Amino acid sequence: MELMMHVPLSFCFKCACLKASTLRDLEEVTVVEQDTGVLTQTTHTPIYLELPHGAWKETGGEQNAGEGIVIGIIDTGIYPHHPSFLDNTQKPYPNVSHYKGYCEVTAEFPEGSCNKKLVGARHFAAAAIATGKFNASIDFASPFDVYGHGTHTASTAAGNHNVAVEVNGLSFGFASGMAPRAHIAVYKALYKGIGGFKADVLAAIEQAVSDNVDILNLSFGISHPSAGIATFFNALEIAMLSAASANVFVAHSVGNGGPEAQTVLSFSPWICSVAASLHDRIYTKFVTLGNHATIQATGLAPGTPGSKRHPLILARDALKRNSTSNYSIEECQNSSFYDEMIVAKKVMICTYSTGFVDGSFTVEKLVRTVEELSGLGVVIISAENLYDEIDFPMAPLSFPAAFILTKRETAAILNYYNGRPNHEPKIRIHGTNTEFTHSAPIVASFSSRGPDSANDHFKIAEVLKPTIMAPGKDIWAAWSPIADRPKDFKDQRFAILSGTSMAAPHIAGIAALMKQKNPQLSPAALQSALATTAFTTDKFGNDLKAQNPSGNVSTKLGPATYFDYGAGAVDATAALDPGLIFDAGKQDFVDFLCTISGAPSIVKATTGIACDNNKFNSQLKKEHQSSSSGSMPSSFIQKPTDLNLPSITIANLTATLMASRKVTSVGKKIETYIVTVNEPKGVSVRVKPMKFTIKPQETKELALELRPLESSGHPSFGHIKLCGNKGHSVVFPVSVVSKVLMEVGCA
C-alpha cells in the first residue's frame, strides 16, 4: 500500500473486486477508482521557434538558458550516457540547492549516472509488479531507459546545446533542448512491454512534487475519459492539481486521437494541454520515371548512382521460378525468395503493408533484401488496403530508397511499369533535400482535438482544450541505443519521432525559460502568458490550417480553430513578456470544481478544501442586485465560465451570460490598454471597460456579457484583444459550441 501526501487523502493498493465494492460502501470513502493503463503519446525546432535570437537571448544566451530550473520528466526513464545529458560542458553546471531528489543506483544505472545536469533519477513500478506483468529482464527496475521515449522527451525539453546528430553514419546537424541549461530529474513510471499504470504515475508525480521540481512533463495519458462525476476528478487530473498547487507547472500531451472532434485526453484547466503541429522543415524527395514523369516521394535516403534512370523490377516479377511462397513476397523480407540475376543492377518495387504497421515486417529487412540481391535501390509503394497518405517511418537509410506517399502516386508508378510491355521500365531516385516552408505551423492530423469532455458521456466542458500548440511532427531528439522499437533506430543515439508526446516537452522547456526570467509567476500565470501571446496566423498572415480540421475531417487541409490548436502556436519570446496575465490558484480551481452538479460532496476529499456555500449565496445576491439595476456586475455567481482563464468557452449559450476576468500587469511600466472584440458568429459580446490604464502588479477586472443572436449547433469562434501602448498584445479566445435564441411570446 502506498500513501500519497500531495494528492490529498489518497492511497494505492491491490485488492479483489469484492473488497473494492465493500470500500465504495464505506461512508469514509469518497472514490474508489480502478487502476488503468496510461499510454505514451530536436535539431531544427529551436531555430524554428526563434529561440537563439529571442527567448535564449532574453535569458542570457544558450550558455545560460534555463539554468537553475529543474524539469521533471515522468516517462520511460533515461539513457544517462547520452551527450545531451552530460555535465562536461565548457561552462560548468551549478548545483541546484532547491532540488531535494536523489539518484538511484542499480546495475544498469551505476554510480555516476547522475551529475549536475541530470540531477535525479528514480523508478516506480509497484503497480506494474502487482499485476504480474512486470518483467525485470526487459523492463529493468531502475531509471534506465530501454524504450527510448523518455530519453527523447527529456532531451527535447532540456538537452545540451549543440550536440551532433548522426544516424547510420549520416549527419543531420546539431541538437538542442528548448532550455539547454535546465536540469533534468527523471521519474520512470512507464515500461517497455506494458506501458504504465496510473498508481505508479501518481507515485512519480508525488515524488517529483516532494523533490521540488519546477516543471513537470507528462508525455502520456489515459486511453479514454474516465467514469465518474467529471473528468476533472480523475486521479491523474487531481494529482496534477496538487502539483500546480505546489507551484509546479505541468505540460501534458493532449493525445494522438485526432483528427476527430472531442478526442483530447487532457481535461483540466490547471494543466497546460499541448497539441502538435508540423514545423517548417520538410524533407523532399522525387523519383523520375522513364517517361519523364516526376513523382513526389519521401524518405531520408540517398538517390540512385549518377543522373541516369535505372531498370525497374516489381518484387513479384523477381521471384525464383521454383518459389512457392506467398508470404511477404511483395514486402521483400527474405532475399532467398528472389532471383539475384533478375534484381541485380535494378531498382526493386516493394510494398508497405499492414505488416510494417504492426511490426511483423521491417524496413531494415526490406533494404537488406534488396542489397543482398545486388539491387541499386528500392521504391516502396503502399498496399491497396492501407489508408491514403501513410505516415512512413523517417529512419535514415544509407541505401537508395524512396517511399511513395499516396495511392494516386502508387498507381502512377504501377501503370507506368505495366503499361509499356515492349519497353524496359526505368526510374531514377533523387536524393533527399531539406526545404523550409512558410506555411507552418499546421495542426498535425494525429493531434487530438477539442472541445473538452466534462465526463465519459462526452458532455462538453467549458474549458478550452487544447491549451497551446507546439511542434510534434518529425522531431529529432536523443535516443536510447538499446531500444529496439522502432527497429530502424536500434543502436542509434538519435531518433526522429512524431506525436503530441514530442510537442509537450517543447512547452516544458519554454516554461523553464519563462520561470527562469519570471520566477514569481504561478503555473496558471505561465499558462496564461503562453496562451495570450500565441499566434494564429502563419508568416504570410494567413489563418492557421489543420490537417483534417475537426470541423470537417474529410478535408485534407483546411481552416483550423481553437478546438484544433488551443489558443494558438507557441511564441516563446513573446511569452517571456506577456504584459498582462490571468492568474488563478488552488482556491479558484476548487471553486470551479464546486460548480459541477453533484461535485461538492467529493471536492473536499479530493482537494482537501470544502465548497463554501456562503460565498456562492453572497455572489448570487450581488448578481441579483446588479441585474435589478440594469448594470453589468463586477463579480458573478460561480459557474465554470467564471474561472479566471485566458479564454472563455461556452458549451450551450441559451441566454445572456455574464462573466468576469481579472488581469494583472507583469509589465515594468504603466500601460494603457484598448479592448477590441471579434465576435463569434451569432453572438453579441460586450466588455467593460473598453479602455483602462494599469500599473505594474496592479489588477483590473473586466466584465463580459455574451448574448446569442441566432440558433446554431455549429461552434463559432472569436476573440477579445487587449492592445497596450507599450507594445503588449493580449488575446484570449471566445468559443461558443452551440447557441439557442429563445423565442419570447406575448403573455
From TrEMBL:
Pfam family, one: Peptidase_S8
Residues forming the catalytic site: D75, H149, S501
Signal peptide: none
Keyword Isomerase attributed: no
Key words, A-Z: Glycoprotein, Hydrolase, Protease, Serine protease, Signal
Compartments it resides in: Secreted
CDD domains found in the cross-reference section: PA_subtilisin_like (cd02120), Peptidases_S8_3 (cd04852)
Example of a GO MF term: serine-type endopeptidase activity
Chief localization: secreted
Record carries keyword Transferase: no
Tree of life domain: Eukaryota
Gene Ontology cellular-component terms listed: extracellular region
InterPro entries registered for this protein in UniProt: Peptidase_S8/S53_dom (IPR000209), Peptidase_S8/S53_dom_sf (IPR036852), Peptidase_S8_Asp-AS (IPR023827), Peptidase_S8_Ser-AS (IPR023828), Peptidase_S8_subtilisin-rel (IPR015500), Peptidases_S8_3 (IPR034197), SBT (IPR045051), Subtilisin-like_FN3 (IPR041469)
Domain Subtilisin-like protease fibronectin type-III: 642-736
One of the GO BP terms on file: proteolysis
Domain Peptidase S8/S53, chain residue ranges per copy: 66-545
Family named by the database record: Belongs to the peptidase S8 family.
Protein name, per record: Uncharacterized protein
Organism: Ceratopteris richardii (Triangle waterfern)
